[in-house]
Structure formats: C-alpha cells, structure tokens
Amino acid sequence: MPTTQPRPRALFAMGRPHRDALFPQAAIDRLTRLVDIEPHVVAEDFDDVPRLAAVEILITSWGCRPLDDAVLERMPALKAVVHAAGSVKHHVTEACWDRGLRISTAAAANAVPVAEYTLAAILFANKRVLEIGGLYREHRNALDWAAHFPGFGNYRRTIGLVGASLVGRRVLELLRPHDFDVLLADPHLDPEAARSMGARLVELDELLAVSDIVSLHAPALPETYHLLDARRLSLLRHGATLINTGRGSLIDTEALTAQAVSGRIHAVLDVTEPEVLPAASPLYSLPNVLLTPHIAGSLGGELLRITRSALDEVERYCAGREFAYPVIRAALSTSA
C-alpha cells in the first residue's frame, strides 16, 4: 500500500492578537488540512514552544521577533517562512539567507487597500470634496464652488507618483481608466518600463513642480530619508496635494507643516514622522490637511486577503511548488 507523506510541521510566530485577527476558524481549518500545527500555540519569543526543533514552516506576521542565529539554531528543520503581512525586514535576518530559507510575503495582498485608499484620496483631492464639504457644513447654503476652487475636478489633471513599489504599481493600474496625465519618478526604472505601466518617467524635481497630485510610494531607506525636504516641498505648485501612504520619514514634517500652514498646498497623510504627531501639531486642524492614523493598509475584513495569500503559499510549498510571491534577497536593499 502507498504510504502517506507526513505533513510538514508549522508554527505561528507573531503577536497573538494578529494571529487571532488573521486566522479565524475557517482559515485554521484549511491550514490544518495542509500542515501539522497546533493553532493555539503562537510563538512570540520562541520560549517554551513544543516541538520547536521539528518546525519546517514558520507562519509569521506583525510582532514576529527577529529570526537570528540563536533562534534558528533551535529550529534545525526550518525550511520556509511564510509572512502573512508586508515587509519582512523586521524579522528576516542575514542568518535566514545564510541558511537558505525560502521566504514568502503577502505584500502584494497588503498593497491592494493602500492603493485603493490612494485612488480615493486622488479623486477626492482633485474634486476638493473635503474642503467643499466643510464649507457646505459651515454655511449650509450653495456657494460658487468654482470661484472658491478654480479649475477643480479630475479631468486631465497631472498625477505624479514617487516610487514604482508594489503599491505604486497597483495605483498605476487603478489610474488607467481615468483621464489623467501620469508621471513617475523612480531611479530604478527606465522610460520604457514606465511607459509600460502607463506613466512618463521624469526626475523627481520636475514631477513635484508640474503635478497637481503627488503621491509617495517609495521605501524607507537611508537615501530616501526626508526625500521631500524644505527645498523640494517648495517646488510643489500652489494648490497641489501631497499624499503619503508610504512612510512618514519620506517627508520633513517641520517643512511640510510650514507649507500647509501657509495654505499653499494640501495634504493627505496616513503616515507621519513621528507616527503619532504631537497633540499641538497644526496639521490636525488645518482645513487643507487630512490626517488618518495609518489605516490605508489591511484592516478589518481586508486582513482576510492577506490570510488567503499566506495559505495559498503554504499550499504551494506543501505541493512542492515555488512560491508565487517569493522575497528576493537582492531586492530588499531597494524595497520596503
């Protein structure tokens, strides 16, 4: 009689609240059909974890501690890390690559709601929805909106995207049905690659100077720290809107605050530096600024898209197939 291949041993490694949010019972049921796992066991620090030496697949998410040499020495059977979240930089160390581990990420799944938020922000910003809504609530009467916001609307506006990241590329896809002129600044692309994405490649300073909307999708790297400093923020045209769903460190907050307080530009900020601004920051109350508390990424029911992506990757691994969304070691130096 043919022998049944034993299922690989798997382990959750993440903050327990994230395991509870990402893996409801239906997901647990699918997972337990694929692997040998104790669903109630969540390794937050890898102490007192049963059968740790037998773990072949680590299912990680937010809150996973770094997988350094000391941790990996306790998991000699480990072959794969399936990350049910975006960036792996917080826990995948050089030791993981030295061990030859296969790494997967759900970053593509997490990019979807960020891109949707960005598209909504672009459409609302060009239409001046928030400002008009505020004035309408204040005056409770029809006003001459064109006089208040000359040229407002979405037709033939220029949209500038900074960074062809996973989110940036998804935003480019979502922009295709609209009547926009789309610019892209990314030092790792050539003009033909940008054209294939529906954009024209330009230098960052030119993009800032001519765009009606500037949306940031670059990774947080030493070379992108305060990418938009006081000089570059001054290049933005009067009335332009700056959208940041990337990383707060991409913008000099003090310089941005000065520009916003002057009323020269508008801003939609889902991330800031610091992550929560001081309570006295003018950015909370300015009518030309919308602050949201880092909600563009997967939340609520959107988490299940990440779950499905991770479970699909586990299934591919168990079937002896390649990951659909592998993390490439060399690409980490230029990605989130």
What would you say this structure looks like, in words?
- It is a single chain.
- By secondary structure, the chain is of the alpha/beta class.
- The protein is 35% helix and 13% strand.
- It contains 13 helices and eleven strands.
- It has helices at residues 16-22, 25-34, 69-72, 94-98, 107-127, 129-139, 145-148, 166-175, 191-196, 204-210, 230-235, 253-261, 303-318; strands at 10-13, 57-60, 80-83, 102-105, 157-162, 180-185, 200-201, 213-216, 241-244, 266-269, 289-291.
- The strands form two sheets. Strands 7-6-5-8-9-10-11 form a seven-stranded parallel β-sheet, with helices on both faces.
- The termini are far apart.
- The model has no long low-confidence stretch (mean pLDDT 96).
